Every structure is written in C-alpha cells, then in structure tokens.
C-alpha cells in the first residue's frame, strides 16, 4: 500500500491553497514554512470542487498539478480528498434535489456543507464523475499516498427519495408488513401499517414513538452513507487499487455506525478536538484527556491497528463557545497522547487561517499575520521534530487484555428509550466512565461493539448493554465459560435488536439480563430511578461509596453478593454480585455509582483475571499511562509536578510533561 512509502510518522494537515491562488507569494511561503515545521504530508482538496470543476463538465487541474508537483519536489506527500463534503452553487441551482430535506420535510436552500441527500441519483452521479476525473488524473502521481473520501459525514435527509429507499430497506429486512408490525409493536396506539407505502421516515411532527422505526431509520441512513462512500471508493480505486482510502470520522454518536463503516475503509482516520482548558477547575484537564483517550481507543479498535489523526487544532478551535488558547506544553503533550494511543500521525485543520467565512478564526498553523515568529508555529515545529525522532513507533500495535463495550445500536436504543432516565448523555457517557476506571488501573483497553470478537480479552465490561442482538447473550456465556471475566451492569439484556422487550409468562417468567440469569446467578426484579441529589450507599473493600442515578433490585440465586444497599426499602439487597461460571467469572453491578467505586471495583476484577498492568503503580492523580509496542508513555495532564514509580524507575514529570520509556 502506498502509505508504506513513508516510514515516518505523518505530520501536516488540511491544506486549502485554492483560497490563495491569486497569491503566489503566499503559496511560496507555505512550502518553506512546511519544511521548517517538519511537515511531510498535506490533505489537499477537501473543499475544492468549485476550483476543480468551476462549471458543469469543465475540469481545471492545472493549479492542482502545480501544487502537487511542488509539494512532491519538496518531500511533502499528499492525501488527496474527493470534494463531496461541499458542492459549488451551480450544482445545487441546477439540481435542487441534491440538497437535503429536513425532518419537517423542508428542502434546504444552497449553503453550508455536508448537507446533501445521499439518495439523490444526480448527486451520486456528479460525485462519481468528479472522483473519477481526479483519480484518472492523480491516481499514479508520486506524491499521492491516500484518498480522503468526503469529509466528516453526518446527519440525515428525509426527502421522498430517501423515504422510498427506506421502504426498500425495510422490505429487505422484514419481508412482510406483518412481520414489521410485530417487531414495531405497532398495535399500541393503533399504529399498525397495512403496507410499506404507509411508512414515513420519523419526524418530530410525525412518528417518533415507534422506537424500532426511529432506530431503523438511523440504521438505514448509516447504511446509505456507507453505500455512498463505497461509490466514492470504487471511483478512485478504478484507476489505482493500491492507493488506500479513508474518511475522517469525528464523533462517535454522529449518525454513522463506525463499526460497519470501518469495513469499507482501508485506513481509519479521526478528527480530534478535545476541549483543552475549557473547565474552570484546572484539575479536570484529566477529563479532557480521558475523553480523547476513549475516542482514540475506539477508533484504534475498529481495525485493531494504528489509525491517523486527520485533523486537530494547533491552537484555538473556533467551534467552541469559548476559544481558549492552548497553554504552553499542551500542544506537545496532546500530540504525544495521539501517538501513545495508536495514531501514526499528527495533522491539523488547517495549515493557513482563512481570511473570511465561518472558520476565519479557527486556529491554524499560520495565522493571518503570516509570520513564523508565533508561539503556535514554534509549538508545531517542536511536534514535527519530536515525530521525526519517534518514527520507530510507526505501525506498532497496542495489545489490550481488557475491553469496554460501546455498541452503536445499543446507544441508539438508549438514546430513544423513555423510562428510567430521559437524559441521553448519561447513557452515551457511561462506557467512558467505565473505561476511565480501566485507565486509572493502568491497563491497555480496547473499545469494542457487542459484535466484536471477545476471545482475545481477559476482562470485558458491558455497561448498560440494554440491547441484546441475536447471539450477544451466547457470546457472553461462552466468554465466561472459557475463562473470561465479564462485567454486566444495570439496564442490560432488556430488549432485542429491534428494541422489543424480552417477556415471559407466569409459568415461564423472563427476567433481565435476558437468558443469562444462570451465568450471573441473579434475576433483576425492579429498577429504581434516583433524583440527581439522591443517593443510596454500598460498601466495598472496607469503604463506603454512593449509589447514584439508578438502583436495581436483584434476586440472588447462586451468586455471591459482594456488596449490599445500605438504605431505603431495599437495604440489604445485593448491589454487586459475582459468580464463578465455567472457567471464568460473571459480575453484575446493579446500580450506578460514583467513579471512585468503579476504579476499585475494576482493580479487584483485573487482579482476579490476572490481567497485565502496564506499570505496577497505583493511579497517580492526572497521570495517564499507555503502552504501544514496547514503548510505555507516561503523561501528566496536571499543571503540577507528579512522581510515579514506573516498574522500579522513579519518574518525576513537571506540569504537562511526559516520558516515553523504551
Ligand atoms: C471539522 C471539519 C473541518 C473544520 C474543522 C474545524 O473537523 O472537518 O473542515 O471545519 O472541523 O472547525
Ligand atoms: Zn434525501
């Protein structure tokens, strides 16, 4: 694959020179400054449609030839983008159907970006044509190392073409309308359909209560986007199948099922924009670092391989309410975190700050002043020099014995469910809270879906695995039987893949977690929702912790109770259970808890499972540790000095400092 042309870690980012085609002096500067900053790659053409096809059917490559050639001559490789992230006005004027129709069935006017109807045949055809033109022209250019398909795909269209495609998708999934009605539980409120033609995509002023329909529309649209990406992939591969393709993923709840999308891509890439310094309380910088780490481990786990950070900001991101400057040393620290967690690149959006339009204040490597005498430019040069020295790590894998499940369908269902708690973010963030406990125990951790292969782990945590898809329960059972340690929490094993609750009868009652009562040795009888200022308590390993948000009331069968509720009418009922099953162990956590409990709980489980720690030390506040290949990265996300014992080596790190042990 072409990416292997470069043995170094990549350093660079989005380069949009078409904004300065009338300023050859600026373009000349760009090349000099890139070399100075140790830039070895740029992502070109992300939003270049109107420069490449200024009029329908008229293609102008001269400017791009010139830039590609110059970059190559100067040792800078190119990730070339297909321009489908944004379209020129002529296209929407002539073919209005390419614009999205929103939930209220109002078609958008021309403007913005990433708002196309992925069903539109004309849109698909226009994108295919320009992609093929680009590929025909550049697929064998020596500078080209990868194709960047589109840009941060997200959102949905609700037009008639999409509705029609949705109905086709439903026919393929359910076969008959009766079968669909059965899964949608549409007898409730008399919503029973008599034919597929009656089905409309969900809308706030239409149907939102049939959760299976709402979730299916998300699934359908995710499939549609993936199908759209495959058209782009085929278009560019036609001229040189050796060039790998990627698309920049950016927000795991953005709408696309990234586990499925990953199967279409050769390489995974990610846009990383943590909110550094955005908390008033400086001690919570750790939280930003955890969030970044979680997303890195998520994307790294998609292919179980290194990925590429495609975008990040070298200074101030303009998309947040408050634009905080990156504090000294944070640029280097955040870059090393990307590498530690499996990225083979540090790239920025964008190289040079735009003079106008929406992102004119989005921090770039080169500011409006054009100078190299800036703090940001020096920081970027420092990262360039560091990456140059760290090429040995390129391609190195991370091995994890622990995993946390973050499952797209499950999260979609939890976002829709009305019961227990209506706060979507509680469930979205839950896997990250469990992940944080693993991080604090200094073990490498993967983030996987419920469909991933479980067999390579010693410990798996499934927080609120509400939806059991076909085969999920059986996989959990086998994992434990074969010696794995599995943690399941409250609100698990409640619905099937279509969000239909598992149910029983008087002679054959069914309790959550569905079909796993014998594995966990418990039955869930009831679940209590707690107000934000309420708590129960439980004792674990000699300390008392708060139980928050929700408490399940369990019947214990043949499991051991590790902890019990201390108050209310369920005082004395088991809150945490453990059962040996087969060669492994099944743990059930019946309530939400404060994070300190999770830290201790997983410490106990990791020890029981004999999972390897990266370093033996107990958690040192704000110090994050990750192993990649043979290298151990130790990062201090506090502004204060920290000391840690790294397997016998005493390491003292000043604020925002790090060490790499090889
Ligand atoms: C996203 C987009 C970029 C740019 C940046 C910064 O990541 O992909 O085009 O808009 O945000 O805001
Ligand atoms: Zn549409």
Description:
With 662 residues, the protein is α/β, with parallel strands linked by helices. Among the domains are: 402-608, Class I glutamine amidotransferase (GATase) domain (Rossmann fold); 623-661, no CATH class. It is 31% helix and 19% strand. The protein is built from 17 helices and 25 strands. It has a seven-stranded mixed beta sheet with strand order 11-10-12-13-19-18-17. β23 (642-646) and β24 form a beta hairpin. α6 crosses α8 and α11 (330-340) packs parallel to α12 (375-389). The longest helix is centred in the middle third of the chain and has 27 residues, at 211-237. It is globular and about 75 Å long. The protein starts with 9 loop residues before the first strand and ends with a strand.
